[in-house]
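Aim 2 progress update. The chain analyzed this quarter is reproduced below.
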Amino acid sequence: MQQQEQQISGDVLSASDQEVLVSQAGEPRLRLKVGPSTQVQVDGRAASAADIQEGAQVQASYRTDASSGEPQALRIEATSRAQPATPAAPESGESSPGMPR
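Predicted structure tokens:
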């Protein structure tokens, strides 16, 4: 029996050539197995799963493998956080907006 294709979107906790760990807001993590047939895109360009950065936003489709029961990624589209929409907080903690000095 052919498994239904499912979708997930969330944040990448870790990524390697073999798997991508995805977290949805308040949901348990999902470990997606990456195989030779998995299509991976980062910022709209073809890439490998290992190119996906921690904290990137991903949308993935996957099927649960009938024999192993593991989620097998079919397509992964990642959007890196290289160009944040909002300015990142300064690492040094020098200035925090709205905090009295």
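The mean pLDDT is 85. Residues 5 and 63 are 5 Å apart (CA to CA). These observations will guide the mutagenesis experiments scheduled for the next reporting period.
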